[in-house]
């Protein structure tokens, strides 16, 4: 009996020993979490995104890519903003990474990086699917079923905006086509106000085209610094002659800001100055457009002023640029070129 008990007790003791060893072993799932996995490694496109990003905004460039002489990358928007900010501070623009001097002549386009970035995948803001960056814009504007769209009855007041794939169902159930004429007219009045503003501008231009004397001059503004305690960035053109009178154009940046360098939303204003003496009043209308030399982007706006012997400078009017980014782009350039059309004799 003693031998049998001994033989039967060995397996139990062996099992007890194995159980004790298993107590110190981690569960299978836990061991998998602590072991390195290839899924945790960053993908190649993610690593490239960190390498090819702009040194200023730390985002992948959407268009042109510039680099300093040491190869540090900057997107076109940040590059022009650096140049514009340095110009407004009367300072030398430098690379934000290595502080080497940059300008439009020393900084070069990096076409290889531009092509590489265009092929990197990017996520659609609507459907969250991955697409190459060079085709993402077309997908978001034309192809994505989740893109935001409006009802075809928005002109009569329907405020609905939703996914494109729900547009057809909404339009079938939309109640705006069944509204009364009075309710529809309220929505149309808002649209009519915008149309009337555009018509006033076109009508004013067409009337000016019937004036006796119409002249145009291609103006180039060059920067200089004021003699004030705090130097201000100003622009001035060369003097030019129109019908026996001498003129020039002046411009300045963000007049209502104490320190324009601390504000990214810059505004440019300009004035027309008559340098000749006149004995009779001159009623003049003028407009700024993009000329054949520059590529300035403006929204046409007609200004009118009566020049006299004592009033020879127009007030500073807003330069009709499309946005603040266009102002920064102009500041980054060495000169500003545009066409000034003057209508200064009544019909």
Automatic annotation (TrEMBL):
Protein name per the record: Cysteine and histidine-rich protein 1
Disulfide bond found in the keyword field: no
Main location: cytoplasm
Taxonomic classification: Eukaryota, Metazoa, Ecdysozoa, Arthropoda, Hexapoda
ZnF (TRAF-type) residues: 120-158
Domain TRAF-type: 120-158
Keyword Cell wall biogenesis/degradation: no
One Pfam family, short name: Sina_RING
């Amino acid at each position: 009996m003693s031998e049998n008990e001994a033989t039967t007790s060995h397996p139990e003791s062996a099992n007890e020993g194995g159980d004790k060893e298993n107590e110190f072993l981690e569960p299978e799932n836990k061991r998998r979490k602590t072991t390195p996995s290839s899924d945790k490694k960053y993908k190649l496109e993610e690593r490239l995104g960190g390498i090819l990003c702009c040194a200023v905004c730390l985002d992948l460039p959407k268009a042109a890519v510039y680099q300093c002489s040491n190869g540090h990358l900057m997107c076109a928007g940040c590059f022009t903003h650096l140049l514009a900010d340095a110009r407004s501070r009367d300072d030398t623009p430098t690379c934000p990474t290595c502080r080497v001097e940059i300008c439009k002549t020393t900084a070069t386009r990096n076409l290889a990086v531009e092509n590489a970035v265009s092929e990197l995948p990017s996520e659609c803001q609507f459907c969250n699917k991955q697409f190459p960056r060079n085709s993402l814009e077309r997908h978001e504007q034309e192809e994505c079923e989740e893109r935001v769209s409006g009802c075809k009855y928005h002109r009569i007041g329907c405020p609905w905006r939703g996914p494109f794939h729900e547009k057809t169902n909404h339009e079938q159930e939309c109640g705006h086509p069944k509204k009364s004429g009075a309710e529809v007219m309220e929505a149309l009045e808002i649209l009519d106000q915008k149309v009337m503003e555009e018509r006033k501008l076109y009508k004013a231009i067409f009337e000016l085209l019937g004036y006796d004397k119409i002249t145009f001059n291609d103006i180039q503004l060059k920067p200089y610094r004021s003699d004030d305690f705090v130097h201000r960035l100003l622009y001035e053109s060369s003097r030019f002659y129109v019908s026996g009178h001498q003129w020039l154009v002046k411009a300045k940046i963000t007049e209502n800001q104490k320190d324009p360098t601390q504000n990214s939303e810059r505004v440019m204003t300009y004035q027309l100055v008559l340098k000749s003496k006149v004995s009779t009043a001159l009623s003049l209308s003028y407009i700024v457009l993009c000329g054949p030399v520059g590529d300035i982007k403006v929204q046409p706006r007609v200004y009118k002023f009566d020049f006299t012997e004592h009033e020879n400078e127009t007030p500073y009017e807003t330069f009709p640029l499309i946005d603040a980014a266009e102002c920064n782009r102009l500041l980054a350039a060495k000169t500003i070129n545009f066409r000034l059309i003057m209508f200064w004799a009544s019909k």
